[in-house]
Design goal:
Low-confidence stretches: none
Strand content: under 5%
Mean pLDDT: 94
Structural class: mainly alpha
Distance between the termini: 27 Å
Radius of gyration: 21 Å
Strand order of the largest sheet: 1-2
Order of helices and strands: HHHHEEHHHHHHHHHHHH
Length: about 350
């Protein structure tokens, strides 16, 4: 694909390549699982592949491929395998995240634990269907995560490069787990420290969704620490911009476009830049009302609409949008400072990615 291909076409081409690669892998994985381990393994792998195959934008896989191409990589089959592995890590994390968030939908279809609970009911199995769905989904996630490790270990790349990629990816997953811990704990304490909300954005989103995929691709192309260090500030600020935009959509987004209920974040009691600002800037009566709805399992559509009103009235929506724009500008400034290291068209792709992220509606 020519480097001067327009952004939207280039991103679509990355997505198409990753989706096709995953589809081919799915056929192999399903057959191999049942042949080696029987019908329950087929259910396990089929559930994981269902989540994996639902697509999305494939930003992480695209950034693996882009980082690789940006640093001169040429082995397309190998880098597609790496992109597939990173997308599999993402599916693994989504399954766990949906359990922790109590989300029944993922991209418009049942989440893994909801899907497996339905399987339990349909087959009239013993025990509690919801508990079984969670139990089985955790195993699905673990299996998928280890399968991703195997893919990285067996890439057609120099042994030291594979070792480096395995090391940085596992370090990323460790830090992401700490980010998720803070995300959950922020819901459980009365007044979370703003620094803890920043940790979530850095550790759970920026590192995992932007920095790691770019580093993986660059390292596999043979790039050294000078290149990976140079792109890190861009990834940090781009990731924060992405997360804040996601938080806004999590309250004000359209359910059909999001593929999940916009009430999920409030039902879960998630504390984000958006909700934290609202709690800090509302009057006592309104703040008490908003707190009453945050984390309410059976929040109604009327109560949800009231939350939207309170958040808007506090100035939180405008504040969050400005914060997302500020982070995007910092990402662009960081890229401008180091962009001469790489082909101009590749740097332009990263610039446009940031701009599109904060303007997205899904």
């Amino acid at each position: 694909m020519p480097r001067n291909t327009p952004f939207s076409e280039r991103l679509a081409a990355y997505k198409q390549a990753v989706d096709a690669d995953i589809a081919a892998y799915a056929d192999f994985a399903l057959h191999a699982a049942e042949e080696q381990f029987g019908p329950y393994a087929h259910l396990e792998v089929e559930t994981f592949l269902d989540i994996l195959s639902r697509g999305g934008k494939r930003i992480r896989g695209a950034l693996v491929m882009h980082g690789y191409e940006m640093c001169g990589g040429k082995n397309r089959d190998m880098i597609l395998q790496a992109a597939r592995a990173i997308e599999m890590f993402h599916a693994y994390m989504l399954i766990i995240d949906d359990i922790q968030d109590r989300s029944l939908l993922r991209r418009g279809k049942p989440s893994a634990h909801a899907r497996l609970a339905a399987y339990h009911r349909e087959h009239h199995l013993k025990g509690d269907a919801d508990y079984s769905g969670i139990s089985l989904a955790l195993n699905v996630a673990i299996a998928g995560g280890h399968a991703a490790q195997i893919l990285l270990a067996n890439m057609d790349a120099e042994p030291q490069l594979k070792l480096n990629v395995l090391s940085i990816t596992n370090r990323t997953m460790l830090i992401t787990a700490h980010g998720q811990m803070y995300d959950v704990m922020n819901e459980l304490v009365e007044d979370p420290d703003p620094a803890d909300i920043e940790r979530v954005m850095e550790w759970k989103t920026a590192l995992y969704s932007f920095i790691n995929p770019l580093h993986v691709g660059m390292v596999l192309a043979g790039a050294g620490c000078e290149d990976t260090d140079a792109i890190t500030a861009y990834g940090l600020h781009a990731g924060k911009a992405f997360q804040i935009a996601d938080d806004i959509l999590g309250v004000f987004g359209n359910e059909q476009k999001l593929g999940k209920s916009p009430m999920d974040d409030l039902r879960e009691g998630k504390i984000t830049t958006l909700t934290q600002y609202a709690l800090q800037h509302l009057g006592t009566k309104d703040r008490t009302e908003l707190r009453r709805y945050l984390g309410k399992d059976d929040i109604t559509t009327q109560e949800f609409a009231r939350c939207q009103q309170l958040i808007t009235a506090s100035g939180a929506a405008d504040h969050a949008q400005k914060r997302a724009s500020d982070e995007a500008e910092q990402a662009l400034a960081a890229l401008d400072a180091v962009g001469s290291r790489w082909p101009a068209a590749d740097v332009d792709f990263l610039r446009e990615l940031v701009r599109k992220m904060i303007a997205r509606t899904s």
